[in-house]
């Protein structure tokens, strides 16, 4: 589930507050959004790809927080890794034209 | 600090020809179709149009059957697999409309991939891109989009549905939309399993529709589960097509022929389910050749997020797996459709996508991603057109002053509210009956009887005492919807005294000719179950 909003990367655009389908974040008047309802996170990773500065990190475990720190995620270059795999950049969609899934369907 | 909340009396009131509830693909298509028919459309979603629902976080195939002589044969072959419950006429018209809408996507400039010969490959939709694209099309069509506006209940003038009411959860303001027709595109019920898209998929539309007098069908077909890395949200079976499976002691899980399983999807989920009831199961994607490994990684990047973040190479290392319950999302149950325009039988109320029963499309077996995706493309279109036609017929009729709010359980308890009954506990109690493999994947009459009794008791508490205030109404209403869906599902499963498709009665193996028809449920608190032929006779009279 969602575990990290990186204050060093975040530009306080509040896009995550808007796009999270589970309404996990709250905007704040004085700074970065907060994870207000972590328990509601559905671990869909979509906030990460909509974030224009790769400031969010969703850990793989959906049942509860893993306790991963920003330094650990940073060291493993995990910030923005799902967006890069898709071909999304700076919160903008991209890469679906290179999707090779049709080759998988043939193999299936 | 959270933003200041407005008082409940300071509520938002809008008027529309067509109100669409939901934010997944069928909601988007319904909104576009209605707007193209010149209707004034409002779309209100619990979450955000573009990320809500099961499609947005996924990469889904479609059931894409081009026109031509072969189409009837393809539909016929697929029908053979539906446990005799699907309707070939609906299947044919679905592939036809879905194909047209896939072409429409291509004309609009959706970035489909190309095949080697340069032709566009339109049979696959990458969820985040598709739903972001659809949001733009909905806005371009002039639809008013209300994100984070969960609906709590439908409104009726005594004859027809005339709108819905809910709460704008990010500003704490109540909303009401008066509309000449409403499309329910609220998705299925995943019983709060932690799967992709499931936070919003709590079956809200089922309860709202049933309160309005609509029926449901196929609710017994909730026995679909999909493999996922243990503890993850990735209920995507495709990579497990090329996997081996092992018990804790390292011994392989074998298939029906005695050979080790090399493919864990489709019917083979049954062997994995049996092993998972005994103890932990591990898998390795070791049947995938290097080229396929690359395509899987690039084509299904969401599936690899859990491995990459946990530091596992799934092609060479064993990792623990689970089967995730998928309720009616990959099951087939939902609101019963009574005519080609996706009407529900309640004047002014239409249904699309997973909120609708997909029994007519896929019978007793799961439609998986592909059939359900095409169904969203087609049923959204029909429901949007149907709703706009109904709205036009009603134009000019002034809204009656007597508008009834139809919401009951979770909003207006039958007896005094009790604070010791919480939404969270209700959901846990339902989950413990409808998600365990040994109760719901493999079913018995005795087990279902016990689950039925427990769910009746949960339902009585919900009906009589569960209530929330302000934003908490969203939670209590979700809990009431989950409790209603679980209760209908178990009752229908008890009624179907045979095995068919994903309804596996270990005490009654095999299909019975006496049950080669759909089961239709009508009513909320006191409900009845009838065979589809009886239901049709009733509608005709």
TrEMBL record, chain A:
Instruction: Name the Pfam families on file.
Output: Fer4_9 (PF13187)
Q: Which PROSITE patterns match?
A: 4FE4S_FER_1 (PS00198), 4FE4S_FER_2 (PS51379)
Residue stretches in coiled coil: none
- Which residues belong to any copy of the 4Fe-4S ferredoxin-type domain? 1-30, 31-61
Record SUPFAM superfamilies: 4Fe-4S ferredoxins
Query: Is Iron one of the keywords?
Result: yes
Record key words, sorted: 4Fe-4S, Iron, Iron-sulfur, Metal-binding
GO molecular function terms attached to this record: 4 iron, 4 sulfur cluster binding; metal ion binding
Q: Which PANTHER family match?
A: ADENYLYLSULFATE REDUCTASE, BETA SUBUNIT, BLR5484 PROTEIN
| Protein name stated in the entry | Ferredoxin family protein
- Source organism per entry reads Mesorhizobium ciceri
UniProtKB/TrEMBL annotation, chain B:
Q: Could you tell me the Gene Ontology terms of the biological process aspect for this record? A: anaerobic respiration
This protein's GO cellular component annotations are: plasma membrane
Q: Does the keyword Flavoprotein apply?
A: yes
One Pfam family matching this protein: Succ_DH_flav_C
Q: Fumarate reductase/succinate dehydrogenase flavoprotein-like C-terminal domain location, by residue? A: 441-511
What keywords tag this UniProt record?
A: Flavoprotein, Oxidoreductase
Give the FAD-dependent oxidoreductase 2 FAD-binding domain ranges. Answer: 17-221
Q: What GO molecular-function term can you cite, just one?
A: succinate dehydrogenase activity
Q: What name does UniProt use for this protein?
A: FAD-dependent pyridine nucleotide-disulfide oxidoreductase
**Biological source species:** Mesorhizobium ciceri biovar biserrulae (strain HAMBI 2942 / LMG 23838 / WSM1271)
């Amino acid at each position: 589930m969602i575990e990290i909003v990186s204050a060093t990367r975040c530009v306080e655009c509040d896009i995550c507050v808007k796009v999270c389908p589970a309404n996990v974040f709250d905007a704040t008047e004085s700074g970065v959004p907060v994870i207000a309802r972590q328990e509601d996170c559905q671990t869909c990773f979509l906030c990460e790809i909509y974030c224009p500065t790769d400031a969010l990190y969703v850990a793989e475990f959906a049942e509860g927080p893993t306790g991963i720190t920003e330094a650990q995620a940073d060291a493993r270059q995990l910030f923005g890794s799902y967006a890069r795999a898709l071909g999304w950049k700076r919160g903008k969609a991209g890469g679906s034209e290179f999707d090779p899934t049709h080759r998988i369907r043939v193999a299936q | 600090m959270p933003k200041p909340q407005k008082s409940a009396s300071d509520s938002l009131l809008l008027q529309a020809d067509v109100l669409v509830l939901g934010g997944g693909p069928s909601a988007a298509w319904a909104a576009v179709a209605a707007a193209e028919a010149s209707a004034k459309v409002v779309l209100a979603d619990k979450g955000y149009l573009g990320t809500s629902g099961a499609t947005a976080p996924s990469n889904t195939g479609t059931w894409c059957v081009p026109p031509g002589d072969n189409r009837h044969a393809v539909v016929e072959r697929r029908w053979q697999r539906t446990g005799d419950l699907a309707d070939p006429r609906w299947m044919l018209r679905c592939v036809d409309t879905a194909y047209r809408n896939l072409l429409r996507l291509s004309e609009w400039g959706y970035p489909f991939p190309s095949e080697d010969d340069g032709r566009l490959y339109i049979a696959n939709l990458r969820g985040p891109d598709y739903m972001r694209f659809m949001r733009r099309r909905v806005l371009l069509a002039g639809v008013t989009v209300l994100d984070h506006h969960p609906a709590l209940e439908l409104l009726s003038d005594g004859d027809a549905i005339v709108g819905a009411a809910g709460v704008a959860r990010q500003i704490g303001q109540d909303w009401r939309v008066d509309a000449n027709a409403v499309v329910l595109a609220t998705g299925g019920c995943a019983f709060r399993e932690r799967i992709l898209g499931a936070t919003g998929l709590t079956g809200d539309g089922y309860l709202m529709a049933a309160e309005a007098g609509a029926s449901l069908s196929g609710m017994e077909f909730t026995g679909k589960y999909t493999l996922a890395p243990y503890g993850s949200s990735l209920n995507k079976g495709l990579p497990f097509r090329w996997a081996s499976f092992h018990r804790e002691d390292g011994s392989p899980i074998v298939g029906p022929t005695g050979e080790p399983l090399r493919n864990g999807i489709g019917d083979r989920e049954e062997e994995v389910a049996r092993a998972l009831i005994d103890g932990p199961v591990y898998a390795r994607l070791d049947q995938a050749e290097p080229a396929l490994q690359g395509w899987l990684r690039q084509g299904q990047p969401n599936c690899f997020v859990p491995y990459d973040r946990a530091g596992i190479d799934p092609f060479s290392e064993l990792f623990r797996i689970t089967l995730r319950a998928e309720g009616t999302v990959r099951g087939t149950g939902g609101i019963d459709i009574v005519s080609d325009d996706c009407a529900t039988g309640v004047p002014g109320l239409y249904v699309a996508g997973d909120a609708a029963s997909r029994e007519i499309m896929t019978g007793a077996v799961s439609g998986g991603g592909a059939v359900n995706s095409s169904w969203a493309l087609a049923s959204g279109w029909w429901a949007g057109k149907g709703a706009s036609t109904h709205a036009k017929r009603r134009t000019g009729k002034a809204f009656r002053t007597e508008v009834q709010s139809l919401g009951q359980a979770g909003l207006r308890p039958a007896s005094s509210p009790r604070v010791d009954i919480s939404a969270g506990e209700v959901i846990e109690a339902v989950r413990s009956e409808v998600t365990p493999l040994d109760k719901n994947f493999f079913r018995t009459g005795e087990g279902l009887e016990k689950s039925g009794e427990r769910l009746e008791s949960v339902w009585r508490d919900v009906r009589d005492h569960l209530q929330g205030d302000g934003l908490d109404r969203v939670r209590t209403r979700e809990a009431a919807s989950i409790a209603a869906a679980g209760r209908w599902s178990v009752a229908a499963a008890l009624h179907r005294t045979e095995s068919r498709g994903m309804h596996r009665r270990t005490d009654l193996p095999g299909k019975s000719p006496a049950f080669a028809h759909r089961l239709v449920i009508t009513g909320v608190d006191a409900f009845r179950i009838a065979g589809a032929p009886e239901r049709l006779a009733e509608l005709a009279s």
